[in-house]
Amino acid sequence: MKIKLFLFLLLSYVSVAQENVPDSYNGKKLVWHDEFNKQGKPDPENWSHENGFKRNNELQWYQEDNAKMDKGVLNITAKRVKKVNPTYRKSSNDWKTSRPEINFTSSSIHSKGKREFQYGTFLIRAKLDSTLGSWPAIWTLGIKKPWPSNGEIDIMELYRVNNQATILGNIAWGTNQAYRAKWDERKIPLTHFLEQDPDWINKFHIWRMDWTENHIKIFLDDELINEVKLSETLNPDGFNPFKQPHYLLLNLAIGGNNGGAPRQETKTIKYEVDYVRVYQ
User: Fold this and answer.
1) Who is most buried in 43, 47, 181, 204, counting CB within 10 A?
2) How confident is the model over 53-71, as pLDDT tens digits?
């Protein structure tokens, strides 16, 4: 009887949570959302996982176990570990295979091949951790062409710039040189937000991207962070990577080129996402 009552209350909670999702936003209709209201791993109908060492000389080994839904929130937790790198090769010059050990694990999920969108308003409510070494992100990549010619939109990044915690909103596209991007960057010191609210880092905030055929605008709690006109984002071959569908990524990186070296006493770093919503 108690089990039945518990299941009823749980289903009622999820139902109420779903009903509270607005079906329109500024004249656009809700086309997809994930409220992370289930228990356990992210919904495989929406998300896939990255695995292993991936980019930017980062410290974390990506794996599924570090991303879990609980009480209506997706928790991505980076953990300090000491594990053997299964891809290690003694004579390797590749940073991914030259490390004998894995010192951090974390998670990165993406919607490639499952949930892809061209234009719309994207709303993501999240809470960050500014601990040294933390590098959380909300971003998109285009489905055609290799990076950066496919286009990258960093709706949110947090990492250290000149040893100062910084919030970033960036847009990148291709150049004549392979793997070298043209960046439209905006970097705002975290102190800008802490001056408005000293407890800012301990609260959830809403990142919004308004993406049309003419522009991309990125907002944080309705404050404009960055914008770019799509007339300016052409690759050298004339292809515009922001006039094609993109998929979403949510990840917590550690260290690497931009995150900063975590302190030895840092055992865990947490990144929390309340929901992802797309309106068109």
Assistant:
1) 47
2) 999 999 999 999 999 999 9
